[in-house]
Structure formats: structure tokens, C-alpha cells
Amino acid sequence: MRRHAGLGLCSACWQKHPDRPFITAANLQERLTVPPPWLGDFAGHLAARHCASRACTMISALGRLLEDEHPNHPQALLERSRRPGRSMGSLARALEDFFTQRALALPTNHADQLAAGRRRRRIEAAPLPLRPQIQAFSDALLRARERALRAGTLPRADITIEAALAIVRDFARFLADQRGKLDWALADVHDIEAFLATRPKARQRRLTVLRQYFRFARFGKAVLVDPTRGLKAKGPSGFSSSTVGVAQQRQLFRRWTTTTDAHPHEAFLGMLALLHAASSSEVRNLRVNDIEPINRTVQLGKRPRPVPMDPASWSVLQRCLAHRESQRTDNPHVIVTKITKSGRSAASTAYVSHIMDPCGVPPRTLRCTRLADLVNTLDPKLVAAVLGMDPEGVMIYLADHVEAGRLPEQRERRH
Asked: 291-292 and 307-308 as β-strands: parallel, antiparallel, unpaired?
């Protein structure tokens, strides 16, 4: 059996030894002519977040960057450590967390690059003759966002721009495949109506984007007439999504409170959506310092007041915190995944959207169920104030009829 010469350990034990990253970093310091002063602290940063073998692999990769002929100051090192593609790499993520926490470098623009790649893929999926105008529309949306940032108004998020480009891409493909038209100037109102009829539930959103696009195209002389002029959404303005019945609510409540079959993240998100009308974004961005253990309250999103936790919700929260503690992470968020435990970012939107898959009910449906119950039971303006929502946002949950059981019994007039 092979043994390590310095510590008298076998190879298997040496691979898992907690001092191995520090020894690797010390050996690297001896090889370097001018070792960086932060190298030892970075080894401790890696050792606290990764296994010994993983940390040593990243230190070795860092050593190859430090030993080349390029500058080794933190910002340049961070840029060179990034991998091409959708993932910047574990070493680049670790260096970004380490440098930004110590104010040694600025964060990378990796998120902007990913968003640019998503926009490019949507544009390239459109037919080639119709593609240049969609590219110009994308550039116009980005310029509008920059103006909004400078003016201090609400800029469009990346997901909003990408959704708009996806709708225009789908219409371009429909125009070419179904209508045989490869010129935007040939689009008419009948093409718009036929495209909107393919997805009736998304009619209002699609028509809004197409109106925006054809206004831009008419301003740029790509079309002479706006084919969306005069069209109406014709969609219901009230709440039309599905809700969860009382019996199924009880079943889900028992699943998350009386058994441990459900994952702590599923139980936590489900309970907050079912009882407190919490959105996935509020739960995803919840941090440990947002929890007040003395008063048992939680600060959810932009709500004006902390939310008191009932005993069942508090118990589920403790399970989620215990799961986070078992991961031995410095991530400040309550929901920590295998990917985010070595950093400080929140869990991805895709992860949170699939947490509730085992129970078969999406979190949005649970939240809508709670909102519909609160709005139809209490004052809608009061609900909006408590949840930090716009009054117009909660009005759609008002029922268009009054249940017979809630009406007082009719009494005959006494003469």
C-alpha cells in the first residue's frame, strides 16, 4: 500500500485529508517567483466549500494561470479563468466569490453573456429573410433598457426581452411556414389573427408584443401599415387559472407537516405558497438574516411588514434550515442547492420551478389559491397592502358572482 511520505498516510486517506489543499497551495507558493498574498486565504476559501480533491484540482488549475506570461492581478486572473460557453467554470465562480467579497475585483459579466446568447439563439431560429428586422428590434429593446437605466425608471429585464423575441420569432416562423410569406411588408391582419388563434390563452400577451414590434417596424419603414391596428385582445380580464380544492389542500398540508417524505425545499415552498401566498421569487431570494427567531417572523420580498409564521410553517422552516446546515455552506440564502452551496447566489429559477414536481401542484397554483381566498374573504385593498402588491394586481382574483352560502337568508317583509 502506497503511503504519503510526509504524513505516513495511505493514498486513499491522503486524497481526503483536510490539510491537502493547504499543502498544495504552499507548494505552489514555493514555485512562484512572486506569489500573490491572497493565495493562502483562497486555499482556505476552497477547503471550506469543496472536498479536498476538488479544492486541490482548482488550486492546480490556478497555478497554471499564475505561472504563465499574462498579468496576475485579480481582475485579469478572473477574466482568464472563465471558460467559454454557458458555464464559466467552478474555478472562475470560486475566484469571483473570493475576490468580490474582499473587494479585489469586480464581478464578471457572465450573466450578460448568457442573456446575449439566449437572445442570439432566438433570433437565429427565425427564417433568414425575416431575421435582420428581428435583430434590429432586439437592439432597440436593449437601447430602451439603457435609457431606462439612465433615467432611473423601470428597465426591462432579460427574461422580458427574451420572451418578446420568442413571440416575434414564433410569428416569423408561422408567417414563413404556414402563410408562405418571407417579407414583413406582406403580413396582414388575417395573418395576425391566425397566429393568435394557435394559442388562445396567450392571445393578450402575444398581441401586446406584436403591436410593439410592428410599431417599431413601421417607424423604421420596414412595413407601411401596422397589421395589429384595430385588433383587440378579447381575453378575460379576471382570474382564469386553476386553483386547488380544500380536500387537496388538506392532503398537501399533511404531506408537508406530518411526514418526512417530501424534500425540505418542497415542503418549505409549498407551505409558504399555500398559507402565506408567497411567490417562488420571494422564497428563492429569502436569506437567513431575514428570519427573526425571537418573534418567529420572516421578511418576504418587498412586503412592508415581516410575516408571522404559524407553528406548522415555522417547523417546516426549521427543517429547511437543518438541511442547509448539513451542507456546510456560507451561502446566505435559505434554499441552497448542490450548485449554489459553494457560492453566494440564490438557487436558479429552474430549480425552484421544479421543486413541487413530486406533489404534482406548481407553486403558482397554490399561491393563486390563497390569493383568491384572501381577496374574496377580506378587503382586496387590505390584502394588497399586506402583501406589497398593487391593488390592480389583486382585483383580478375577485369572483364574478356571490356564492349562495355567503348570502344572508331572505326574510319576508313584515307589513
From this structure: unpaired
Which region holds residue 111: left if phi is over 0, alpha if psi is between -120 and 50, else beta?
Answer: alpha
The grid cell for 274 is 399555500
Count Cβ atoms below 10 Å from residue 383 Cβ, excluding itself. 21
At a CB cut-off of 8 Å and minimum separation 6, what does 201 contact?
235, 240
Residue 157: exposure state from Cβ atoms within 10 A (0-12, 13-18, ≥19): exposed
User: What's the rounded Cα separation, in Å, for the pair 226 and 207?
Assistant: 12
Give, rounded to a whole angstrom, the gap between the first and last alpha carbons of the chain. Answer: 106
CA distances from 33 to 36, 55, 85, 134, 362 (A): 10, 22, 33, 53, 56
Q: What is the pLDDT of residues 189-235, one digit of tens each?
A: 999 999 999 988 888 899 999 999 999 999 989 888 899 988 887 65
- pTM of the shown model: 0.64
C-alpha cell recorded at residue 161? 426581452
Residue 121 grid cell: 439563439
> Pick from 270, 279, 277, 281: which is nearest to 348 by CA?
281
Give the lowest-confidence range in 4-8, 135-139, 194-198, 359-363: 4-8
Query: What are φ and ψ of residue 50, in 5° steps?
Result: -135, 165
* Other C-beta atoms lying within 10 Å of the C-beta of residue 356: 24
The number of residues making up the chain comes to 415
